[in-house]
Amino acid sequence: AEHTPNNGRVFGTATGMVSGLLQTLLLLIFFLAGGREWRRRLGRGPGATAIMEVGDRVQATVSRYLIMTGIINAFEGAMVALAMFAAGFPAPIMWGVFTFIFEFFPYLGGLSMVALLTLVGLATSDRVGHALLGPILYLVITTLQNNLVSPVIYGRRLELNPAAILISVIFWLFIWGAAGAFLAVPILATIRIICDREGGSLKPLGDLIGG
Prior knowledge:
The chain is mainly alpha-helical. Helices cover about 85% and strands about 0% of the residues. It is built from ten helices and no strands. It has helices at about 5-35, 35-40, 50-85, 90-100, 110-125, 130, 135-155, 160-175, 180-200, 205-210. The protein is elongated.
């Protein structure tokens, strides 16, 4: 009984992240649907060429990030599901789906997955070693993904400072909740693109964000 408040808090965070992801995806769909009209209107104003150039780079980078992240998350989710099945954890497919969704939220998603796996492991196993096997397997898989797969897939164009990502996630999580955590990396990538494009006094900021 003493663990009930913690369980409720962790599951509440997980629910909020799933809800935030769905809301943000719907918002992005509406933005993309109206993208051509906005581009037409921006093309009439002063400095239209520079604005559209930055806009095109941002759109290409963010689109690539979302697509690549979806592919990586799907692969990682499959690996986690197989690992949970091999470890005898309940509902392995559910853990694979959770991994796919939560990995869209840098740092926050990983912490939530470890917390959920630990709570479920302790609740369903009499042995501490077996209870901790789930979160350990997840950490091994996600560490390999972060250090071997992601750098190759994302490439140099989306190379961002891990400390800058963490600060961005904390800030936008505070401002917009789960949706902010989801958008933290695209926003940071956008800032870097603008800094690189403008140069001058903004170049040091771009270099700092890019690590």
